[in-house]
Each structure stands twice: as C-alpha cells, then as structure tokens.
Amino acid sequence: MAATTSSDIAEWLVDGARSAQRPEQVLEQICEKLVAGGLPLWRTGVFIRTLHPDVMGRSFIWRPGAGVVVASAGFDILESDTYRTSPIATIYETGQPVRHRIFRGEGLNRSPFLGELRDEGATDYIGFPLHFTDGSFHAATCSTKQEGGFTDKNIEMLASIMPALARVAEIRALRRVTTNLLDTYVGSRAGERILAGQIRRGSADALHAVIWLSDMRGFTSLSDRVSSQAVVNVLNRYFDCQVPPIAKHGGEVLKFMGDGLLAIFPVSGAGDDTADVYARVLAAARETRANVEALNKAQGPWSTDRIRFGIALHVGEVLYGNIGGGNRLDFTCIGPAVNLAARIEKVAGKLGRTVVASAEFAQHLPDEWEHIGEYALAGFSARQTVLGLRDETESLAAAKSA
C-alpha cells in the first residue's frame, strides 16, 4: 500500500479521500494505511453528531478484518449511564483529547466501557476532538492491544492526521445533513431532484402517479377548544398513523397542509409493477385506518377528541416540480388530478366514509370497491364517479342497524 506515513495519509484526506465513496470507506482506508505504516491499531471509532429530528448522531467502528460497522443513536442515549460515563462524553464536554492507559487501570473505576475494552485485551485508549469550521466538535478514538499501550510516536502520528480527518468528516457530514433535511422537509424523491440541480422556478416534469389526499374532520372545532400545543400533539399523533404506512408502501409525502396531507405513489406503467402499486396504496390506506382506530381506542371511550378523517385516492398526470415566487420555492405537484382528489375527499366527509376513490383508481382493484354515486364537483364540468370500500359499507350498515 503506497500511503504508509502520516503525511501521506493527511495529503490523501486533504485531496478529499476520493478513493472512498462512502464515509465508512474513508475510515477503513485510513486504518488500513495506518496499520500498514506500523501503527498497532485494534479498534478505531469516529462519532459524528448530526441534524436530524430522530437521530442524534452516527458512529463508525473499525476493527481489523471486520471492516466498519455503522450505527445511529437517538437522543435518548444522551441520558444513559453508558454515554455519561464514557470517554466520548468527556471529549464532547471539554473539547480536549483524552487518554486512558488501560493496562494501568486508568478510567476503569468510572467507565464500564473501558472495562469492556480491557476484557477484550485492550491496553490503551486515546480520543481526539474533531473540530469543524462552524465551531462544533465531534470525536475520533483509537485503541490498541500493544503491550505498554501506544508509544509517543504512535500518538504523534494519530494526532497529525486529525485536522485533515476533521475536514473530510465535516464535508461528508454536511452532505448527509443536507440530504436528511431535504428528506425531512420535501421528501426523498424531491430531495434527490433538488440536489441534482433541478432548482429553477418553473422546472417541472409530468408524472403519472396515484394521488393520496387526506384530511382530518372537525379540526377547526378542535383548534377552538384546546390549546395550541394540544393541537400540535394531536396532529403529530395523527400523522404518525399515516406517514409510516405511506413510506413503507412506496409513497412519498409531499406536503402537510394544516390537518391535510398530500402524498404520491409514482406509477411506472411497467406491467405487473403497475398492479402492485395500486395494491400497495390500498394496503397503506387500510393500515392508516387501523392505526387511527388503535389511537382512538388508546385514548379511551370517554375521549371527546376522537380522530375522524378521510382519504381520497385518484390516479392521473401531475406536474412535479418547482413552484413559487421570488427566492421562495416549493417542490410539489399540481394539476387537475390533484384537484379532483381534493374534491373527492370532501364527498367522503359528507358521507362519513374514511377511504374513497375515483373510478380511475378503483378500476385497478374492482373487487375492493363499490359504486357510491355520481357527484358534481367544483371545477369539473362532468359529474364524477366516487367509489367506497366494500368493507366500510358493511361497517356503516352494521352501525346503522345497531
């Protein structure tokens, strides 16, 4: 292996570590180069905090012959004894390097983690802060099984590459944060298009897709009766019933509109795959309905704020792209198909239905649907056929006769 000195490794990092496409490959190649240069590494970890609503950060752990294991940690880890007693917590608290000569028993009385390393044969542990240009810092740690621990030369070699590692880690971390934020706020498909450069206003593509439009009923009344924070809590629980099933079955949430939600499921038109899309959409709708029912039961029969909602399903052509004014754009979908889905959902509310569909959608799963009626909808010259799920018809009939 060509790069075996710390200066060679630092130069490779400054050049962008271009032979490593993924972050874990960066760490793996660094460790391999260090070992080839004579450094007795046994375990190396890099810990990067991130900007994500559910994930506090990620860890990358390398061991010789085992590659790199990547893991994510939630915010609850910050309250755990495992984290609080770890050397990593000390690095984050002080921003300074830490060292524990395990063979001398250093740190073992405070950190169970160091005791675990000792039980595996580790003799020394050293951690470095990785300083990012925004003033934040993260961490890199190294352990060895070498008798007597790391030498001064070993530590000098590790310390010399940390500034360059921090720059590469920051670039890769910023790229991931950008992707996370786009996924969180505009959706993964839209995020991919934005990162690919599709950011000019008016730039849009025609897309054949199933449109999912849902709306909570009685939201205005609820907002008038309870506190703003309570409304937010209800909305979050309600959307938790929908978003996971939509994502699980291949859809993408494009927009939250107060108590409304707009999602799409792209339809490729490629044979059996097309039929599968409609089945997955209906499965997501039924899972959402079951989730809301479970949520209402968990609130108890005494609750006056039981969630009622409707989902409208339609399929058609939409324009998918950038719409807005000035320097404020929204990546979303528009078109008559979206408008029709919104109008059909209003019919569902009047009929007390939870899931309704247009004839264009229902024809792909004819055994699941039954004709409800023909309706004049605002903005459409012709009356539109609306269909409802057969199992809901049976439930409504049973409720009326009870």
Features:
402 residues, alpha+beta, Beta-Lactamase, Alpha-Beta Plaits, eight-stranded mixed beta sheet, six-stranded antiparallel beta sheet, 14 strands
Describe this structure in words.
This protein is an alpha+beta fold and 402 residues long. The chain has helices spanning 6-14, 23-36, 81-84, 87-94, 112-119, 152-185, 188-195, 219-225, 228-248, 272-299, 336-351, 359-362, 390-401, and strands at residues 43-49, 57-63, 67-73, 98-100, 124-131, 137-144, 204-217, 252-257, 260-266, 308-325, 328-334, 355-358, 369-375, 384-389. Strands 7, 8, 9, 10, 11, 12, 13 and 14 form an eight-stranded mixed beta sheet that branches. A six-stranded antiparallel beta sheet has the order 3-2-1-6-5-4.
What does the secondary structure layout of this molecule look like, with pairings?
Elements: H1 6-14, H2 23-36, E1 43-49, E2 57-63, E3 67-73, H3 81-84, H4 87-94, E4 98-100, H5 112-119, E5 124-131, E6 137-144, H6 152-185, H7 188-195, E7 204-217, H8 219-225, H9 228-248, E8 252-257, E9 260-266, H10 272-299, E10 308-325, E11 328-334, H11 336-351, E12 355-358, H12 359-362, E13 369-375, E14 384-389, H13 390-401
Parallel strand pairs: 10-12
Antiparallel strand pairs: 1-2, 1-6, 2-3, 4-5, 5-6, 7-9, 7-10, 8-9, 10-11, 12-14, 13-14
Low-confidence stretches: none
Euclidean distance between termini CA atoms = 79 Å
Proportion in β-strands: 25-35%
Indicate the overall shape.
Answer: elongated
CATH class membership of the largest domain: Alpha Beta
Q: How many beta-strand segments?
A: 14
**What is the CATH H-level superfamily of the largest domain?**
Nucleotide cyclase, GGDEF domain
For the biggest sheet, the summary is: 8 strands, mixed
Average of the residue pLDDT scores: 86
